[in-house]
Amino acid sequence: MLHFTPDSPLSLTILVLCSVLVCVFEFVNGFHDTANAVATVIYTRSLKPGVAVVLSGVMNFLGVLAGGLSVAYALVELMPPDVLTPPNGAPAVPMLLSLFGTALAWNLFTWRAGIPNSSSHCIIGAIVGVAIGDSFVHGRTFGAGVDWHQVVKVLEALAVSPLLGLAGAFVLYRLARLFIKDTALYQPPQGEHPPRGWVRWLLVGTCSGVSFSHGSNDGQKSIGLIMLAVVGLWPALYALNPQQPNPVPLAPTQAVQLEQVLEQYDHDAFRTQALAAAARLHTQAGAVQGQGVAPIPVTEIRADIFQVVAGLKGVQENPALPSAAKASAKQLRATLRPVVEFAPWWVRLLSAVCLSLGTMIGYQRIVKTLGEKIGRTHLTPAQGASAELVGAGLILTAGYTGLPVSTTHIVTAGIAGSMLGSGAGVQRGMAGRIILAWLATLPVTILLAAALFYGLSH
């Protein structure tokens, strides 16, 4: 697939298929993760299921539109820069098919089994798998194309956040028992009657909070990946950011500074590529000065910028370099990143629509697990509210600091924490199945995506 003719009907057809897969993944993400928000209001009879999923869908929609892009490109930057080079449909096609074929397969498998699983872990595992497959395609050492520093940073957030959810919900439930004496908060629902007064609206509020925060974090993940397909389909329009003044070609003095900084980049596998890309950007600066140099296509400029941004990041994160060099790298990287890291309004809208529609379908299996099979007793309003208040706070914080976290892991761990806080305990069998699925997600998706990418690239 790396040898398709650029802009050929076959190449464009497969890129359209990739775009559809992105949207399907976001749709599945919606119905897989919806249960985290609606389980409490459904199982406490605070809202009817139909009303709960519509509310959750609307709040997910608003969360995507209100979210930023820091999480979106934190994921994209996990991949090596030559995979991100768009756009003759070449690396974009096997990359996107591998990413979403892998993530969709594992998401649907765990959903069918009724196991709450993380779409974030699925896509991150697939991204790392593509990066490893790319290192084999280009004959590099194992994992040479993987930004392991960024991978570790992301995995730390994914590992720590469920523990915070567990501990936070445990503590919050205990504090509620200490200071709030309304018995309606601690009793399971009676028949089909909703909890009375403020307890019901507390749960509606926490459901809305988790849904909004889920949209603001998970919606960003698909936005960044939708953009990879969009650039593959319409490189002339979207290879570079049309929404702001373009700083490329660089001023000659800035181009010289860029080359000087990148001379200190010590990643053997990509140093030559980063320096060559910087030299081409320098040449373009000469074209602007009327030196008779023909401008290069915008898609090639995009490819060069990704190479340079990766090199600048390597300089910025190298502890052995002087602070002045790292400061220069940071400033240059901040100038160049917005040129290639952006999302038009309609991409945000598309992500929001897919996520919110998925939210309204297919939620029953996971809701039943969360409401009945994690704890040894039926979920009470206090337990649900504790898990969701802590979850919404953690997810929102992560979304606005650029860390991808798993809504599923945080809320599921929060429910377990509130069950432990109440003394009810958890069902070991189901807890073991969930933990096993969580532990298997990364190795399974990494291996499958690496094999798919390597096979499709040949």
UniProtKB/TrEMBL annotation:
UniProt-recorded Gene Ontology molecular function terms: phosphate transmembrane transporter activity; symporter activity
> Which residues span the membrane?
12-31, 51-76, 88-109, 121-137, 157-176, 222-240, 345-363, 435-456
Q: Is the keyword Transmembrane in the record?
A: yes
Location comes to: Cell membrane; Membrane
Q: Which InterPro entries match?
A: Phos_transporter (IPR001204)
Q: Would you name any one GO CC term?
A: plasma membrane
Q: What topology in the membrane does the UniProt record assign?
A: Multi-pass membrane protein
**Reactions the enzyme catalyzes:** phosphate(in) + H(+)(in) = phosphate(out) + H(+)(out)
What name does UniProt use for this protein? Phosphate transporter
